Amino acid sequence: MVAKRAFLPQVSKKSTGVDSYRAFISYSHAADNKLAPRLQRGLHQLAKPWYRAPSFRVFRDETSLTATPAMWSSIERALSASEFFILLASPDSARSKWVDREVAWWLAHRSPQQILIGLTNGELTWDDRTGDFVQDPAAPTLPKRLQGVFTEEPRVIRLSWARTENHVSLRNGRFRDAVAEFAAPLHGRSKEDLVGEDLRQQRRMTWWRNAAIGSLTILALVASVSSVQFFAQRNTAREQRDLAVSRQLAAESTRIVDTQPENAILVGLESLNAAGKEHRNPPTGLVTGLARLQHASERYSIAHTLSVSYSSDGRKLALGEESGTIRLTDPRTPDRSDQTLRGHTSGIRNMAFSKDGRLLASTGDNSVRLWSVATGRPYGAAIKLSEPGNGVAFSPDGKLVASGGVDKAIRLWDVATGKPRGKPLQGHTDAVTDVAFSPDGRLLGSAGADETVRLWDVTTGKPRGKPLQGHTDDVQDVEFTPDRKILASASMDKTVRLWDVTTGKPRGKALQSHVNTVNALAISPDGKTLASAGGDMVHLWDTDTGRPQGLPLVGHTDNIWSLAFRPDGKQIATVSGDKALRLWETAVTPSISQALTGHTGEVFDAEFSRDGKRLATASGDGTVRLWDPLTRRPLGKPLHGHTGWVIGVAFSPDGSLVASAGEDRTVRLWNVATGRPHGKPLIGHMNWTTRVDFSPDGRLLASASNDKIVRLWDVATGRPFGSPLRHDRGVLGVAFSPDGKTLASADNTVRLWDVASGRQIREPLNSNAQSVNSVAFSPDSKMIASADNTVRLWDVASGRQIREPLEGHTGTVADVTFSPDGKLLASSGIDGTARMWEVPSGQPVGPPLTGHETTTSQVEGYAGAVNQVVFSPNGKQLATAGDDTTVRLWNPEFSGWADYGCEIVNRNLSRAEWRHLAEGLPYHRTCPEAGR
Predict the structure, then answer these.
(1) Coil, strand, or helix at residue 37?
(2) What predicted TM-score, i.e. pTM, was given to this entire model?
(3) Where are the transmembrane segments (predicted)?
(4) Counting CB atoms within 10 angstroms of each CB, which of 6, 320, 496, 626 has the fewest?
(5) Domains by residue range for the chain, with CATH
(6) Residues 245-279: pLDDT tens digits?
(7) Distance of CA 583 to CAs 317, 362, 570, 572, Å?
């Protein structure tokens, strides 16, 4: 099995990751490893209520790094995502090559006016005559690159005193003033304003704490009068204290969920534990984290490792370290070395086991080395290379080893003798980054920094056809599928491509989901799944269709350099710059939320059949799809017929038909059993059709359109039923009442119609909204819910609004629906969330459901809409349809938060993580049965 890794020597283009930071802290780890995190924490917490998440993030690398290209890409991403540069200046940082490189990047891409200097040691004096700092030439305090770059004296905050201070926090007035100096430009507020606000927040916190203590004291005094009352009030005080702690942890969980989903889950579970049984609404961070993580994984702390590979029997796992050491381990206990192989003088960029598992080949320095797996000793002499090697692979029969490297050539070596087999394979115009044999051993695939993939005839050493061109940046990795039909390639252009080996042509479009360089790929032993690593996550793809398989594997906190499938396909190993090995289960773990993937455009609508056995979806890709909600698999092929977006979908009451509404102005009926059209399209609307709904008896179909009309159709004949129902604006929602007597429709008002006569019932229900996007009847037909910028409830009999609107969404509400028992209401919106509400009280139930991925939009506040929300007929599932091309199935009654959270994370917070995320609380293991 071939190890998959990044081609480390080249990091040439700036990342475009989604993270953003208000400031980047550059510092010497040797000098300021204690002060830097305190400054970062202070900037996050200054002038902030304790229960709220910080208003911005500040980047600080948390480990002592060596200046290698492998680590630089992650630092470069953080720099490019930062608005300000905070330099902790000292003679140590002035000598640091790492700090120098960060300063150089900032000066090349940003303004010196955005640099803030914290002086932690040494002296800095500004000379107005020269317009520069005066420094000691023998021990400068600033990197040389900063000489002469400032047009005026920059802000310098003196922090040398803080190095020897015992208590450095915002409770220290001197440190609070220093933090406020840094924070003022970051917030765009004055230092005095920030300090005043922070003192007010501290006084509030002190008041609340003293109030709690006072309450307990008073209760103690009252105990002499009534011990029963004392205990009741004491318990109330404790409950309020626990709720406050729970809210603080919930805010922290939500704050870190995008960057640390596993920690967000663990902190969210602690929030639940602190709240007690009466207040167990899960925090947003917990729900979001659990929705995003579908694959359980084991995490092991290891040395910085660049490559990983399984032996063919799966009993050995090889880890190639940056130090040049190779460790052979048992995959069941990978943090313990069975054997240590030493000989290389620099990082191991690639490794491969022979098919029989007897030998291991490795490269990274100016050599290829073969090792006996049984003894851990070298197998023959090292094979010398003129320049560093990048790729290595065994032929299937184990007689040849192929290598490729910086010298642009591919070489074949005889395993028995260690001598070259034939002449070098020449053709690449830049470094060869990877090589791979086809399963039959007749072909060799190669990847190059020249942006090409090449195929070679192993027998003749000649190229097989022309170079495979399509990538727009260095190609990092190649691998054949087991049937030899496809060659996959991964590139720094953030894509994966599939090539037809016979024709040399691309198979479909490039696979695009990564936002960073794709460093490595691997194909499952059955050839059905391709795994690609880019940035800190792994994406899974269907090799036949090129479509994503579920959600990415999320958990690493730095670039993933290498990955490999276990030979049985049930596990994926990954190694990363975060110094962690992760072993992922490829099987999806049952979750609070599961994604249905397959559509290639936004999903606008989703509806369950009355028996709950099918789910129909309508998409901007022009198709209707049918799904099995239990298995989450498609039923049959997509239904093609519309010539544009499909916007609405509905099942007939008996489940035999599906109706769809589309951009092409038509309504179409489909036979569920055959997937074929049922009759001709229903034509009559003059603009987009937006929604459809069957009458409860299945005889009528209502369609809404942007042409300001609702039409009723006779399902049996396909002809119009009665006259059009006219509106003043485009109609976005339509729904029959459960008793079939009334039809509700929505433009910027809600109109009620008598189905039998086609007449409007009273004046429209008017909330002065710009548009009403959805309407739904309660199961007893007595209430209507409508969606505009809020959720509103109306009494059908009187036409009056029931209570104040339900507010919580931060943008337009797209859809609304009742649960089958009428006790709950669900809504979805363009803020990317779905929410649930208690109908009797109007109170929210739990946090927003936030599993759908954010999409790119130019509309402010538009996170990627959740367009539709619907309960299953038994109320045990909630489906949401999103702009991220997926449908998600939720369990609205999910109660096993702790069990599932611990199963998916399978670890505990370290003591260091606990101190940072749950400061002030006594440490304990959230998941007692899990690892660290």
Answers:
(1) helix
(2) 0.54
(3) 210-232
(4) 626
(5) 21-195 (3.40.50.10140), 594-893 (2.130.10.10)
(6) 777 887 888 788 777 888 888 888 888 777 765 55
(7) 11, 22, 10, 6
